[in-house]
Amino acid sequence: MSQDLAQDLVVTNNLNINTEFATKRVNLQQNRLVNMAESKSFLASALSWHGSVTPRVLMRVIVTSLYTLAVYYIEPFFHGYSLSITPFEYSGSVLALILVLRVNAGQDRWWEARKIWGSIVNKSRNLALLVYGHSDQNKELRQTLLKWIAAWPHIMRESLRNELKLQEVSELIGEEETEKIRKSENMSMYVANKIISMLQLLKEKGMDPHSFLRAETERSQLIDAIGACERIRNTRMPLVLAINTRRFIFLFLLLLPFALVERTGWLTTLIVALASYPLFSLDEIGAELQNPFSPRNLSHLPLDSICKSISNNVLGLMNRD
Fold first, then answer.
1. I want to staple 293 with a disulfide (CB 3.0 to 4.6 A). Which of 11, 160, 189, 245 is the partner?
2. What are residue 135's DSSP bridge partners?
């Protein structure tokens, strides 16, 4: 019996180690994909692999190159049926405009999301300062409310990512309340309702009406901010734009080798590869920027560090008591 127990313990320990290792590996991968400052070295940025779109489009470039190589080998059997390069000069300009439109649309979403999270930082701090500065009558309730304010950005982040880990939240407000949040229909609304209840209690215990109204304004604006983030996450780019952009790229690269192979021979493979790389890259960048909250997307917003910064600011007020 003791031997079986020992074996179970070994298996459990191995599972825990494997789970911890897998978690660290996922976190490391997410950190490599998060948006960071570019290197001051031109060469380091140009040759960077992590955070680049290259790993995601490399296979497409390879397939395009193999297709072009096949065209080079079969071209002698269809000698005299090559295409003129002139249509590709004009269509290439149109394709460039379409790709710029796609990337700009994604960039607009990314930048709007970053501005919204900047407002979440400011409004969370303002709400915490109002609670701390105008609730001397009940320090215990004030401490509890500040913990909920510190936890709220973490809950917003997890909600936007459709995750339920809430590790930081559990450390701040306890596992029992965290489990209630997980089971709620909308986690951010649940927290907002709790904060409303505690603000009402502070008002009943002596918080002046003006400060209460200011705190309620900040809280309601935080709800507006998370609603704006949900709009960005849930509203996809027009499907018709994605379909036509990728169809245009496909047809362009499908026919381009037939316009070059007579003039450039075996170098056609290299030329088409060099042409396909920026086309695939810009298309992928536009797709990646559609959801700036997902840790699986390139250059996603550093929400972990933003939420940690808000928590540290709010908890710093608590340490003054």
1. 160
2. none
